[in-house]
Amino acid sequence: DDELQTDGNRSGRFRNGELGLAPANEDVIRIIAAQLAEIGDQFDKEIQARVVNDLVQQFLNEKLSKEEITLHMSRVVRELTQSIPSDMEQEKAMLVLAMVLTKKIVNTVPSLLHRAFNTTVNYINQQLHNYVVEMVSA
User: Fold this and answer.
1) Interacting residues of 84 by C-beta distance below 8 A, sequence separation 6+
2) How many other CB atoms sit within 10 Å of the CB of residue 71?
3) What is the pLDDT of residues 36-58, one digit of tens each?
4) What is the CATH number of the domain that holds 113?
5) How many angstroms separate the CA atoms of 101 and 93, rounded?
6) Which Pfam families match (predicted)?
7) What's the total number of domains in the chain?
8) Three-state secondary structure call for residue 65
């Protein structure tokens, strides 16, 4: 329901006259976002163009349902997760990889923004919802 912001900030819209999160929570979310962005920058360099191009082809295939596209993204994230350092939480790596892949897909084919964003949100909600909630509440 919020607008997509690339700088980590909320869209600035109010709900019933109040922001959706308390200011302290927004600070925590900004810190978490900065940490994830730093990890994402490291992963960004390691993801091969072939992997991104294969995913782009899946996203461009209009015959595939949202569920099928989400399954493809999940498979790619799982495969990439195997090559990350073992000292990092697997869920954190999966979250960052999903976001980095989305960025790379959209940078490759900007017209896929809506489909890639929605797929990533679905993937995170299905696979990593509890992790995100725990991370924000910790």
Assistant:
1) 43, 93, 97
2) 16
3) 777 777 777 778 888 889 999 99
4) 1.10.437.10
5) 12
6) BID
7) 1
8) coil
